[in-house]
Structure formats: structure tokens, C-alpha cells
Amino acid sequence: MTAIETTALTKRHGDARAVDGLDLTVESGEVFGFLGPNGAGKSTTIDLLLGFQRPTAGSVTVLGRDATDEAREVRARTGLLPEGYDLYENLTARDHLRSAIEAKDADDDPDAIVERVGLDPDDARRAVGEYSKGMTQRLALGVALVGDPDLLILDEPSSGLDPSGAKRLREIVRTEAERGATVFFSSHVLGQVERVCDRVGIMADGELVTVDALDDLRASMDATTVVEATVDASPEPDAVAGIEGVSGVTVDGRVVRAACATDDAKVAVLDRLNDATTVRDFDTEAPSLEALFEAYTSERAVDGPDGSVAVAGGESR
Ligand SMILES: Nc1ncnc2c1ncn2[C@@H]1O[C@H](COP(=O)(O)OP(=O)(O)OP(=O)(O)O)[C@@H](O)[C@H]1O
């Protein structure tokens, strides 16, 4: 069964497109990593999934319901850890959990949740106004877990967590998935997503630039070499687009980097660059998943061969 399905989902603010023609499917029980740099459109997508914003165009179905017109039903079966969790400073963690349990008409034991997220039981009796960022984040995770939701939406859940908190988060995500819940894990940090997610989608400038199983992404990276060429003049972004076997291109001033799947692709990239300008030097290196993320999220994206996406960027990150 499908947990999330968006079709041509678009949200504009004036001329700005926060989300632009998003086609995304997340299956039930999947742990899906939703990646992208700041401003890519991740939080807006989450708002659309839960009916907090109305799409400008397109449609969004969550847990079999129209997320815009049946938002109440969707939210009742979803646990959300929002970015920037709003707290009632004078209330305790237990108070927050109790009110979430009541709102969801659930029968969870607040103390069990406190223990599960690793909050100190004494801290859980203190007003949350005194909490550190990590303690707040643990509470926010606890609130999201109330009622054993069918879908967990976690927006930057590792933010503020220490290493033991991050480990606990990963264990909870795995346990929730084993229980049958779908987990939608949004982050701008690849390292936090790659350790728990089955599949990742990468957003840039409101568009989904790639979606794949992590293992397949890794396998494609294993077979890929990055060619880094220093050229006389910065080429046009599409100078090396459309070459078979080239899946990611970044341009940073006079340095062009291209992920090449074959030796022919490497030679073709250098030939094309020599046609457009003059190659002064070049090097090759085995790429990391981090490099792939960088390539996909650099500033400008153009269509590549075979439906793949070649990315031409401005500043390297
Ligand atoms: N209400 C709004 N009015 C105008 N522009 C907006 C509005 N909300 C979002 N945007 C723009 O839409 C784009 C996507 O924003 P969004 O918050 O969804 O990104 P994000 O991927 O969640 O970023 P971050 O990782 O920083 O939270 C940004 O360029 C943002 O400036």
C-alpha cells in the first residue's frame, strides 16, 4: 500500500516556487529520507502532506486520504516532529505528553514515552522552559510517537541531539518501521539519513532531483568516477549535459566536476570542455555519497541523459 503519493504537487508564493511539480511515492512501512539544502522545499512539502498549506496545483494523498480536504483524518493517524517545536514554557514534559495522548485519544503511558526517548524522569517533571535544545527535541519525538501513528513525519529530528540521542532516534525509527509505520525523515544532513533510510529523495529548488534506494545510489557511485577539470573560462551549465554516462556536473568558477560512469564518458566530458574552452588540467577521484548529494543540490539543474539528472552548479558547498 502507498503511504504518500503526490502528483505534480506545486506550491507558489507569488513568483517563488517553494515546491514545483513534485511526483513522489512512499510505500507503507518504508523509511524514506527526504534530503535537500536549506530552502529546497522540504518543510513546505511537509505542510502540504498535513494540509497546513493548500497546494497551488497538483494533488497529495496521505494514508489513502486527500491531504488537503481530509487533513483532520490524516493528522489523526500521523505523528509529527516539526522543525522548531512550540512549547508551553510553564508546563512539564509529562503535561505535554498527556495533552498529546488526550488529543489523539490514545492510551499511552507518559512515563514509558519519557523512558523511550531518554528523558530523565526528574526532568520530565520540570517546566520545559528550562530545557536544553536536545531535551526539547527528545520531548518532541515523544509527542510524535503518541498513539502509534501509521505515519511518522520527522523534520530535522537530529537537530540538537547529542550522539547518544541520535543513536536512540535511529533505534526508534527502526522499531517504528518494524511495527509497520512509515517514516518520512527530512533533513539537510545526509549522514543522519543514510544510516536509517531505505530510500532517499533529494530536493533542490523545489524539485525532486533524484529518488533512489540508498544501496543503488551507493552502487552507482561505486561504478562512477569524478573527473575534475580546470578550464580557461567557466563554461555554460549545459556544456557537458546530455553525455551518456554522465550523471552529475558541477561548475565552480573554472573548475568543472563531472560524475562519469564509463571511460568513454570521461573522454567525452574532456572533449566537450575542450570544444567550449580549453582544459588546462584534470584529475579523477572516487566519489562519496556526500559528493553525490553536493552534485545534486548545487544551484542549477539540467536534464541529463536517459532521464537522469545532470547538475550544473554555481558555488560548491
Ligand atoms: N510563506 C512564504 N513566502 C514566501 N516564500 C516562502 C514562504 N515559505 C517558504 N518560502 C520559500 O520557499 C522555499 C522553500 O522553503 P522551505 O521552508 O520549504 O525549505 P526547506 O527545504 O524546508 O528549508 P530548511 O532546511 O531551511 O528548513 C524557500 O526559498 C523559501 O524562502
How would you characterize the overall build of this protein?
With 317 residues, this protein is α/β, with parallel strands linked by helices. It folds into two domains: 2-214, Rossmann fold (3-Layer(aba) Sandwich), CATH 3.40.50.300; 223-312, Alpha-Beta Plaits, CATH 3.30.70. The protein contains ten helices and 16 strands. The strands form four sheets. It has a six-stranded mixed sheet, sandwiched between helices. It has a four-stranded antiparallel sheet with strand order 2-1-4-5. It has a four-stranded antiparallel sheet with strand order 12-13-11-14. A hairpin with a 2-residue loop joins β9 and β10. α3 packs across α4 (110-116). The structure holds adenosine-5'-triphosphate (ATP). The site of adenosine-5'-triphosphate has 13 residues, from β2 and α1.
Compile the SSE list and pairings:
Blueprint: E1 2-13, E2 16-27, E3 31-35, H1 42-49, E4 57-62, E5 65-66, H2 71-76, E6 78-81, H3 93-103, H4 110-116, H5 133-145, E7 151-155, H6 163-179, E8 182-187, H7 190-194, E9 199-204, E10 207-213, H8 214-222, E11 225-231, E12 246-252, E13 255-260, H9 263-276, E14 279-285, H10 289-297, E15 300-303, E16 309-312
Parallel strand pairs: 3-8, 3-9, 6-7, 7-8
Antiparallel strand pairs: 1-2, 1-4, 4-5, 9-10, 11-13, 11-14, 12-13, 15-16
Adenosine-5'-triphosphate binds next to strand 2 and helix 1.
